[in-house]
Amino acid sequence: MKKIEFFKSVFSKNDFPKENLSQLILCGRSNVGKSSFINSVFKTKIAKTSSTPGKTRSLNFYKVENKFFIVDLPGFGFAKVSQKEREEWNKLILSLLSNYTSIKVAFHIIDSRHEPQESDIELNRFVHAQEIPYFVILNKIDKLNQKDKSESVRRIVEYFPELIINENLFLFSAINGFGSKEIKQLITKLFL
Fold first, then answer.
1. What CATH number has the domain spanning 4-191?
2. pLDDT single digits (tens) 136-179
3. Which stretches of 10-60 are DSSP H helices?
4. Where are the domains of the chain?
């Protein structure tokens, strides 16, 4: 799994790709590291990263091996955009999520240093209600010592009891590549 290309940014449901390829959706709060996740897993700099939360303001489609799309969703919980813009994002995301036939799996990226927020809990409920297969990626794991890693895993399982480490819960670091191999194997198994 080496070939990834930026396909398009989508600001309106009329712009969704016509190609009927399966989709892996990347979702999570603003500044949780979705773009860094793509760059790290694929060893590229294809996804634009920023230290400013809320940089991704469109649905960004990346085509992998010409076989499936990774869709980077705008981060939720970003306060510096207008209510109207936030509502537009939500409508766009909901229209994507309503196209259930194409979405094969959701990767919910959560910062391992913090407790899941209300928006994380709502996302978890929503994705489960749609019966979309769901994986949690605990990101920024390089910033924790061993004791804090264990605490982070315990905490996330408390919120989401269905999670099992290395089955539907993965520890990950875009900085040092921790967990990349397991995640690549998972994506390969799901799509290739």
1. 3.40.50.300
2. 999 999 999 999 999 999 999 999 999 999 999 999 999 999 99
3. 34-41
4. 4-191
